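@channel anyone free to eyeball this complex?
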Amino acid sequence: MVDLASFGMVGSARMGEVSMKLYDGARAPNPRRVRIFFAEKGVPLPELIPIDITKKEHKSEAFTKLNPAQRLPVLELDDGTALAETIAICRYLEGLHPTPPLFGRDPKEQALIEMWNRRVELGLFSSVSAVFRHSHPSMAELEEQVPEWAEANREQVDDHLWILELQLAGNPYVCGDSLTVADITAGIAIDFMKPSRIRLPEEFVHIRRWHGELAARPSWKA
Amino acid sequence: MVDLASFGMVGSARMGEVSMKLYDGARAPNPRRVRIFFAEKGVPLPELIPIDITKKEHKSEAFTKLNPAQRLPVLELDDGTALAETIAICRYLEGLHPTPPLFGRDPKEQALIEMWNRRVELGLFSSVSAVFRHSHPSMAELEEQVPEWAEANREQVDDHLWILELQLAGNPYVCGDSLTVADITAGIAIDFMKPSRIRLPEEFVHIRRWHGELAARPSWKA
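replying in thread with the prediction:
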């Protein structure tokens, strides 16, 4: 995990009047999406509570009370409310800290960003994750692996990449001239190809240009 | 499909200054989510363009230009913008017509509704859909079916149902005292169990109470 002190991000776990805890899983892609989102907002990370998936801590009784879906991350608010689902946590932060806008500024922009975030999340990210969860040896103890599902998804990755490639051929970022939550989701999906043992073919030149720029942002170390 | 004239929902395809077209697939669950959302908002449906999935019209070149993911529904705005992804379309409508609020009114409420909508969508609805797509004979020509994936999902449906059941044990609706987009997604998931040939066990008494109330709403005929 990044050295948070180098971001000036420790020392305050407060956002406005709200003190929070983030149940975090260091290398997993969804907790990382949330940490990158905080960094892009310029908001200090709340207190991090590490949950070790390899020790099945996310299946403990205590954690299941926080999130019955037994998934990371979870943001616990000061009033005890447990907020799960990566995009729900990001949207909460957007509501408290509207600038810079990462979910859009008006109904049409918000809808197009929602569309692209879902398109890359339910398409590319979901397929890459399925390959990882259902074929990676480290997941064998955590998942009822279905190898046929890993293979079916592996075959779909290229189609999802082409949708992203064509969009990035005409736009600096996924939704236009500035970074949005859709770039974070898509960039994390590309990063997650490596542990999923999927190569990004050379021909995706626009994805390579855009991903190189993303990876150079300070937030990407989160 | 519902007789729209009985809702007073024909005669105007205008929302404010925006004239639109909705690419629709009559019995498919996602187009129906959007039609129910329009009805709950009290907004007339735009012009409907039927797309016949059984004839693979969603894979045509013309439709692929509208939505490279080749999925329904798509809302085409007057300026030619093609808005895909059910929840993006619903959120656009929420922006234009904030009342009644179906995505929440403040950051915390919005985040909790987003969480529950995703929890039921990526959990229950996704599993029920996987059973349908990967086991129903009518889908054999449209999908590369992976029977092992249908079975793995069939085994998970009960876990997803219990998450919903426990939430509805303490709340009239999924997110509290009034209907939100999360109820529409969850209700559609329950409806979709029937064509997916999954029985709702008797023991889910709170789901049965809530679903009975949903099904009695005029919007549910959409």
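from a first look: Chain B has two domains: 4-96, 107-221.
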